[in-house]
Amino acid sequence: MHIIEEIKSNVRDQYGKIANQSKEDNQASCCGMGAPCTDTIMADSYTHLKGYNPDADLGLGCGLPTEFARIQEGDTVLDLGSGAGNDCFVARAETGVTGKVIGVDFTPAMIERARKNAEKLGHNNVEFRLGDIEALPVGDNSVDVVVSNCVLNLVPNKRQVFAEILRALRPAGHFSISDVVLVGALPDKIIQSAELHAGCVAGAVQLDEYLDLIREAGFENVTVQKRKPILLPDEMLLQYLTADDIRAFVAAGTGIFSVTVYAEKAGEDAAQRAEVRAKVKQTTLTESCGCAPGSCS
Asked: Which CATH architecture group holds 2-279?
């Protein structure tokens, strides 16, 4: 337990510092952690997505989960590890004024920055909650879609996170999560690095194990939507390994990948979900305009 709390405390401290850095500073390092990397090692560009806001983009992701999340108008969307709000604002563009977006982060500085961004954008249906994704501050069966970008690899108890996602999702809800996974073993010196754990690498698990955790939690239709290799540059590895260690690491064929994974919670069919969303949308419109149901033009 002490080790787990130490890891979480280190991640919280590191991301508290990142919250006050620019995107350029973060992209010059591995997930903002100071180890030199290239722009292509992790983050994908959000600039083509509707709702993108540069002030919320800290360059910390390893995929584009919101692009694959199949968010529909009126959905309630939950973002795990929401940072400065990047994925939340993209999700808001998809779910519209009748939907709702909730971002959860356990770093106070990130929550503060995200709330300021939401206020500047004038979004009154996007909120940010301080909390741990191993104990999500949301009700049971309360959200339609969960997204997350390069966050679960930071969490020691991934099984608990998937259990929490299942609890929070409504029947037939789904998630799209981008994360870092492994195929093969990392050297011990990398695994033991606190900096690289916060940098999204050392905390990664095997791809097969990751997918098994999702299935064991009770999810259905588990699908890898996107997979791309992550190449750690030698100048970064030399901070932790000798030249001989690096040669052995490369020869071992260990793969580090960014994957975007989709899965569904069992429940009602798509037609029922659409009916529920229509009722929620009509209620929202009625409350906002004061009209009787069905009378708004």
From this structure: 3-Layer(aba) Sandwich (3.40)
